[in-house]
Design brief:
Strand content of chain A: 15-25%
CATH architecture of the largest domain in chain A: 3-Layer(aba) Sandwich
Protein name (chains A, B): Transcriptional regulator, LacI family
CATH superfamily of the largest domain in chain A: Response regulator
Number of domains of chain A: 3
Organism (chains A, B): Streptomyces pratensis (strain ATCC 33331 / IAF-45CD)
Radius of gyration of chain A: 26 Å
Order of helices and strands of chain A: HHHHEHEHEHEEHEHEHHEHEEHEE
Strand order of the largest sheet of chain A: 2-1-3-4-5-11
Pfam families (chains A, B): LacI (PF00356), Peripla_BP_3 (PF13377)
Largest interface: A-B, 59 and 59 residues
Number of helices of chain A: 13
Shape of chain A: elongated
Oligomer: homodimer
CATH topology of the largest domain in chain A: Rossmann fold
GO molecular function (chains A, B): DNA-binding transcription factor activity; transcription cis-regulatory region binding
Keywords (chains A, B): DNA-binding, Transcription, Transcription regulation
Structural class of chain A: alpha/beta
CATH class of the largest domain in chain A: Alpha Beta
Chain lengths: ~350, ~350
């Protein structure tokens, strides 16, 4: 008869041996059941007994010990998902985290603030992840990828505008956002198009490709049109300064980087006496609810991050079959929502 | 002479034995130097030689192995910091992460989406953290705290409105935001005050204490005033519906939960023909830049999260000296920014 009482307070955590004893099975059986190993034939009643014993004892496996035993971990590192473009990534990463958890991975969010890419790769490698999704604001180097791979990572995946040699890529091609905005403005007959470039340093990674996409859209069109970069800080005085030079610049349209900068600039243009969209068409990006409250209502490039294969299953596949050629999957689906401002 | 070439490509990671061989010292010396152990006397030149050898080889310590050896880890779990109130927490958590990294902790962000508190505690315990900061949207139970403590966590700290028995608390008392807003409206002579309560489920944890604080501010005042809860979804039709009933409700002021809901409601009230602040004063919270673009400019409760002791050092102290009584530290510093709307 077992002498174990469930959950003895104040003592150390129960081990898998305790679970085995309470359930009356071997440690191997406990391991098979709790790791959902279905290759070994174990009756449903035994599986249930092991699960109940683990629950009664409050058994917590040790991820570190488990990964040392197994030779590789089930840990996947995801970026913590800071701003900018936070909202766009946040929902995607939350879904990805849920999907990976369902596939029995341990998901760890990693910030990497204040580190360069190689430092970050070293810190990540310390956790011996089996897969790493690297955020856009850290441009992984071949050195960092090597450190991660040699520490046991079977899949290194970048998430963002810039694929990196030797890593898989979930590509969020921000150029498409700029291209969609400018194609829309050209279709509305606008020919002299400003493109807002935020001066806050964190935005450069998104602003640069959006501007490049805007330029490309003009080049690819038959229209005799031009694009001009408009540096802007997210401050009223910066917007007022830009608005005061608007007539001199001779612009008849602006892609304002995103909806927040668009709201800032719209207010300043209206205060400077310009009529929207009569004098100047305005389009943002992100399709914020707040943009619909503007008068005129703000046009915007709506964005979604989706993928043919569910990203969690893709990562699982890359982990199961390492060594294949780097894969590229495009996630960003932009779509113009034309309202009154353009 | 050493046969080791730095960074052999494609092979497995170098071990501390490799570092010891290249530096010509013992493995113990490598361990002392790389763990910044200053209790052992080691010359500066030896320390430098070890560090250079580690850098040349691309040596990455294994956090899991290190924590198994040491008996406890240097891993601190922080919440991933999802919305709502994301912006408020994000800067705080980023600073905390940097501070902990400087103190040589490994910081891991943990989401916990889709898990209940006990499940989350079990998953966290698998990583054997030495300290856990638990987010507001997971109400840790004594059971969960027990699991974490027995798995080696020396400090379990909640971050949010609700302290939990048996854990330290970084208290973000949202009641103070509601109280500040309503005290301001009372001081402006308003007596019939609506308080917006968002209907989106994620907001309940913040909306409830903000409403409670608003009620308390009226109770504590001498004024013959009343507070009324106003359910609102973050949608134009919901705001229009509320605005159409505004005169019947007889409200002369509203604390609109935050600046985004305030912008939504302001637009609907103005479209319904109400004059702000003449008919109704409006105040939000969060002090967003966009609120300043409204006409009239939006009043707001600005918020900051600060602490007498630096939070990273506080956590380090709690880790060094476990077993003390639960500590409470209030982080939220609200301040009314009165503009034109109130």
């Amino acid at each position: 008869m077992s002498q174990l009482s469930p959950q003895p307070a104040g003592t150390s955590l129960p081990t898998s041996a305790d679970v085995a004893r309470l359930a009356g099975v071997s440690r191997a059986t406990v391991s098979y059941v709790l790791n959902n190993n279905t290759t070994v034939r174990i009756s449903d009643s035994t599986r249930r007994r092991v699960r109940e014993a683990a629950a009664d004892l409050g058994y917590v496996p040790h991820a570190a010990a488990r990964s040392l035993r197994a030779g590789h971990s089930r840990t996947v590192l995801l970026p913590a998902g800071q701003a900018p473009a936070g909202a766009l990534y946040q929902r995607f990463l939350t879904q990805l985290e849920l999907g990976l958890r369902r596939l029995d991975y341990t998901v760890v969010r990693y910030g990497g603030v204040g580190q360069d890419a190689d430092e970050a790769a070293m810190t990540w490698a310390e956790l011996r992840p089996v897969a790493v999704v690297s955020p856009d604001d850290l441009a992984l180097t071949p050195y960092g990828i090597g450190v991660l791979t040699r520490s046991g990572a079977r899949a290194v995946i970048t998430l963002g505008s810039q694929p990196v040699d030797g890593a898989h890529a979930l590509v969020v091609d921000q150029r498409e956002v700029g291209a969609h905005a400018v194609r829309h403005l050209l279709a509305r007959g606008r020919r002299s198009i400003g493109v807002v470039v935020p001066q806050e340093p964190g935005h450069a990674l998104i602003a640069r490709p959006r501007l490049a996409g805007a330029l490309r859209a003009v080049e690819e069109s038959d229209a005799d049109a031009g694009v001009r970069a408009l540096p802007l800080r997210y401050q009223e005085d910066s917007a007022q300064d830009l608005a005061s030079r608007w007539r001199t610049l001779g612009l008849d349209a602006v892609f304002a980087y995103d909806d927040e900068y668009a709201m800032l600039l719209t207010r300043a243009l209206q205060d400077a006496g310009l009529v929207i969209p009569g004098d100047t068409a305005v389009i943002g990006a992100g399709d914020l609810m707040l943009g619909r409250l503007l008068r005129p209502r703000l046009s915007s490039v709506a964005m979604e991050l989706t993928c043919e294969q569910r990203p969690a299953e893709m990562i699982d596949r890359l982990v199961q079959n390492p060594g294949g050629p780097p894969e590229r999957h495009h996630l960003l689906r932009p779509a113009v929502v034309a309202r009154e401002s353009s």
